Amino acid sequence: MSWPHVKIGAVATINPRLPKDIDPMQEVSFLGMASVSEEGQLLNEEPRILADVKKGFTYFERGDVLLAKITPCFENGKCLRSGKISREIGFGSTEFHVVRVDEGKLDAKYLFYMVWSDRFRFFGEKSMSGAAGQKRVSADFLRDYEIPLPHLKEQQRIATILDKADAIRRKRQQAIALADEFLRAVFLDMFGDVGGDGWAVETIESIAKNEKGSIRTGPFGSQLLHSEFVDSGISVLGIDNAVDNRFRWGKSRFITREKYEQLSRYTVHPGDVLITIMGTCGRCAVVPENVPTAINTKHLCCITLDEEKALPEFLHSYYLYHPMARSYLSKTTKGAIMDGLNMGIIKDMPFPLVPLDLQVAFVAVKEKVSSLMGGLSESSTEDAELLGALGQNAFSDRL
Length: 399
Fold this sequence. Notes:
Layout: E1 5-7, H1 8-11, E2 12-14, E3 27-31, E4 46-49, H2 50-53, E5 58-61, E6 65-68, H3 73-76, E7 79-81, E8 89-92, E9 96-101, H4 108-115, H5 118-127, H6 139-144, E10 146-148, H7 152-191, H8 194-197, E11 201-203, H9 204-207, E12 215-217, E13 234-237, E14 254-255, H10 257-262, E15 273-276, E16 284-286, E17 294-296, E18 300-303, H11 312-321, H12 323-332, H13 343-347, E19 350-352, H14 356-394
Helix pairs in contact: 7-14
């Protein structure tokens, strides 16, 4: 017997209101958009006084489901079960929707996996409205979205199975993180003391290839419309290709060969360094040698290097690991809703002119570690695909 389907709004409250009789001086947990990962995890929180965040931020309580509503955070899966926040009440970015379940009808974990699913994100993306770069999923879409609703015990059984599959995936990611920490330690041991080693400090712009457009973002506005994407053709790279701080294939986006001829100045080359500058900004990846013909979106800054001055994998590690780079970024990123980067910030980032032979020596170590991480990443991708398949089966009454 198939399960009944109900609208989320019939079994949950969307964006509940803050109670009037609440203590304004109590401590609450504050979450920015950067506090929530695309993996559905709480990355950090900070204490705030309720009176200071009562206006201008989004109220929620422990156990509510938070869902990013703005592009590209929504498509990237920024979603959270807030059960692990340290305080009963929380506030966060205005770019979160909050869903509070009717506990007698709907399990919060079950709902989390439902709205974190590829299917939900697919239809949510289709429903988005607003100006380019600021599109959002509406509360009405969330309220009217229909979900299968087995009885509570069955919801909890499904959520437990998905929790176990997700735990396996996260353990694999922890192993990847350990390998990355080892690489960070090697890098800092070799290059952490810029002043002590006497290397001159220039800028990222000074190590880019001496040609027009060697540091560039992708096409803006009417240059490339969403309606111009097709099922096959020339690849278009976006945030998902760099969000893990290593290049990987994510969502398929293509344009025609004819459209590419108009946008060929945005071509991405093997060895280019990609930096995300919108949404989940500040991530970095190196384009692999076997990349097919492709361009990048406006969400990425693409850097073509003068490899007699800097190697792509060295710049990648410098950007991610070095205190000078991290300090510069923390001081210069800007944006009211979420941190933002732009080409000017990236061009002006300080860069130590490390001798090329030392860069080569580090990259050799990095390639060995990356080979191990690559195997782990493949397994992690398989884990994610398994989790997605389990979720699809679960919500189709086949688990």
